[in-house]
Amino acid sequence: MKPLSKYIDHTILKAIATKADIVQLCQEAITHNFFSVCVNSCYVSLAKAELKDSDVKVCSVIGFPLGAMSTKAKVEETKQALHDGADEIDMVLNIGLLKSHDFDAAFKDIEAVKKVMPNNTLKVILETCYLDNQEINEASKLAIKAKAEFIKTSTGFGTSGATIEAITIMKEAINNGNTKIKASGGIRDTDTALQYINLGVDRIGTSNGIAIVTGNALGDKSY
């Protein structure tokens, strides 16, 4: 197992996050040797500048948090985030299209984003709290078909976050393939993080990374 810190995408996605908050996030990521910081796309260039002398990656969310933007809007936001220095992209699935059973449109939405970032890591956020088990399976398969490197449970802004049940269904959809899983939403302490890692999760999105790696569970109660 790699160091616990290297599973962490240190995250701040609140609407009220300030530039000072982003700078602090980056400093914390350097101090604790996290894998990446995860920020809204408007802050990618700031995060990249703050992390220029470190090996901490920059992850940008796209189409966040609803996933209901046009595909063109998601593609253009992705292009700008990559131009500004993003290493990884976490895009939100078009949940409404999936629940409409328009699987082809939901697939093409993911595929279009992946096409403009062939050499960067794409994570597709399924927002599992709004999906039944069959929909989680279908969404996972669509993301895998579109060649996303990761499927991710949650935005952290839905009705709930990661669950063991959702992770299990996502693993079954991967079926020994190369796609990885990112768990996010409600992971606030070391024991919970390790539980998901032991299930096979390769990345954890959380605003409580410091609490997780230090064993202090008095973290932020949001993401």
From TrEMBL:
Pathway listed for it? Carbohydrate degradation; 2-deoxy-D-ribose 1-phosphate degradation; D-glyceraldehyde 3-phosphate and acetaldehyde from 2-deoxy-alpha-D-ribose 1-phosphate: step 2/2
Q: Name one GO molecular function term.
A: deoxyribose-phosphate aldolase activity
Pfam families per the UniProt record, alphabetical = DeoC (PF01791)
* InterPro entries xrefs: Aldolase_TIM (IPR013785), DeoC (IPR011343), DeoC/FbaB/LacD_aldolase (IPR002915), DeoC_typeI (IPR028581)
Catalysed transformations (reactions): 2-deoxy-D-ribose 5-phosphate = D-glyceraldehyde 3-phosphate + acetaldehyde
Job of this protein: Catalyzes a reversible aldol reaction between acetaldehyde and D-glyceraldehyde 3-phosphate to generate 2-deoxy-D-ribose 5-phosphate.
Official protein name in the record: Deoxyribose-phosphate aldolase
Q: Which organism is it from?
A: Olleya marilimosa
Gene (UniProt): deoC
